[in-house]
Amino acid sequence: MFVRRWWPALGWMALIFIISSQPKLPPIPGLGCLEELSSSDKIKHVAAYAVLGWLVWRALGDRYSRGARSLLVLAISVAYGISDEIHQKFVPNRTCDICDLAADALGACIALIAMWAKPRLQTIFYRKSI
Predict the structure, then answer these.
(1) b/e per residue, 89-123, with b = 16+ CB within 10 A?
(2) CA distance 81 to 51
């Protein structure tokens, strides 16, 4: 059960590690317009950690209250972001950047907002007519 719940989150973490290990990242196919933005790196961090936050939320399951689950998602995502930034310090042409960590935390928060909003949105959109 543990492996089934956690493999997507752990796999995503491994992918982040592999990408972070590259001295220079190739452009991502289909995101040419994003590459032109000066803040594209931060947008990529937000997106990657929003996915990570969602996968960790899914992995934790219903064993915790929503509040405890949210804190765990944020703690795990930010801790991994810290380890990722420290790792990048040792990769040629990469830096350890506090702004990247802030973008990582923002991505995890966006995932949490989506998870908190999901039941309310389902109630609105899937309300059965009387």
Answers:
(1) eeeeebeeeeebbebbbbbbbbbbeebeeeeeeee
(2) 13
Indicate the pTM of the whole model. Answer: 0.83
Find out whether 72 and 2 touch, Cβ atoms under 8 Å. Answer: no
9 neighbors 49 (Cβ within 8 angstroms): no
- Find where tokens 């928060």 sit: 109
The dihedrals phi and psi of 119, each to the nearest 5 degrees, come to: -65, -35
- The tens digit of pLDDT for each residue in 74-124 reads 999 999 999 999 999 999 999 899 999 999 999 999 999 999 988 777 676
In 3D space, the residue among 106, 62, 113 whose CA is nearest the CA of residue 81 turns out to be 106
